[in-house]
Design a protein that fits this description.
Strands 1, 2, 3, 4 and 5 form a five-stranded antiparallel beta sheet that branches. β2 (40-48) and β3 form a beta hairpin. The protein is built from four helices and five strands, in the order βααββααββ. It is α+β, with helices and mostly antiparallel strands.
Length: 112
């Protein structure tokens, strides 16, 4: 099993943040299916202020680039992403078009 940790900011707008959270109470079935089909075993998103942190546990066949390609070909996922992008704000480190940015692990208790 692999783990991916990513970060992103939401726009500093309490109404937009509440709406973003509402969408995630129960994500669209097509979005859930796309995650499971790609090999995502579990996903959690945490929020502090406007900063989000995503933890994705994935199977050993999972590929971020393959997931991105599959998402680009999935109209419903593209619709979801378009809606979510209204609430999101790229981090200063983001490349053009990039939203979620992989984080660097700097500590693991298990490896001590």
């Amino acid at each position: 099993m692999q783990r991916h940790c990513l970060t992103l900011d939401l726009k500093d707008d309490a109404v937009a943040i509440a709406e973003y959270k509402r969408y995630h109470v129960k994500i669209w079935p097509e979005v859930k299916k796309s995650l499971l089909d790609a090999g995502v075993l579990d996903m959690e998103i945490y929020l502090l202020g406007t900063r989000m942190f995503m933890i994705m546990d994935v199977n050993n066949e999972f590929s971020l680039s393959a997931k991105a390609s599959a998402d680009a070909a999935n109209a419903k996922v593209q619709e979801w992403e378009a809606i979510m992008s209204r609430f999101q704000q790229p981090l200063p480190q983001a490349r053009p078009g990039q939203r979620w940015i992989p984080m660097e692990r700097v500590f693991s208790l298990a490896e001590q």
